[in-house]
Amino acid sequence: MNKIALLTIPLLWNIPVYAEPVTLEGKAVIQLKYPNNFIETKRFIHQGIKTDHNDCEFKNKIRLKPGERLSWKRIAYNPETCQALIIEGNYKDTSHK
């Protein structure tokens, strides 16, 4: 019986785990145009803070290594919750046609 248990554990580790895609939905959400020629590597919800004037303030901080390039693009925004759906990645190089 111990041999069976040892064989099943490695098999379970090989099963792929699929995460739900990160989205921003709701009545107040404004969908923005997805950028052309963009290679998306990550997406996340960026949480802002409501100001005294009832608008949203977002703090951005990013660290890059020398020579590293990265773009953030907002593709959806909810002004009621101060949340933005951000995609991270880079634009495709289309200069070599």
List the keywords.
97 residues; mainly beta; 4-stranded antiparallel sheet; two-stranded antiparallel sheet; globular
Would you write up a description of this structure?
This protein is mainly β. It has one domain. The chain has one helix spanning 2-13, and strands spanning 30-31, 38-47, 49-50, 56-57, 71-78, 83-91. The protein has a four-stranded antiparallel beta sheet with strand order 1-5-6-2, with no helix packed on it. It has a two-stranded antiparallel ribbon with strand order 3-4. A hairpin with a 4-residue loop joins strand 5 and strand 6. The longest helix has 12 residues, at 2-13. The chain starts with a helix and ends in a 6-residue tail after the last strand.
In short:
This protein is mainly β and 97 residues long. The protein has 1 helix and 6 strands. Helix content is 12%, strand content 34%.
Q: Please give the domain count.
A: 1
For the biggest sheet, the summary is:
4 strands, antiparallel
> Any idea what the radius of gyration is?
20 Å
Strand content: 25-35%
Question: Which structural class fits the helix and strand makeup?
Answer: mainly beta
Helix content: 10-25%
Overall pLDDT metric: 82
* Secondary structure tally: strands: 6
Q: First CA to last CA: what distance?
A: 61 Å
Assembly context of the chains: single chain
Order of helices and strands: HEEEEEE
Identify low-pLDDT runs: 5-13
- By DSSP (H or I, 4+ residues per run), the number of helices equals 1
Strand arrangement, major sheet = 1-5-6-2
Shape: globular
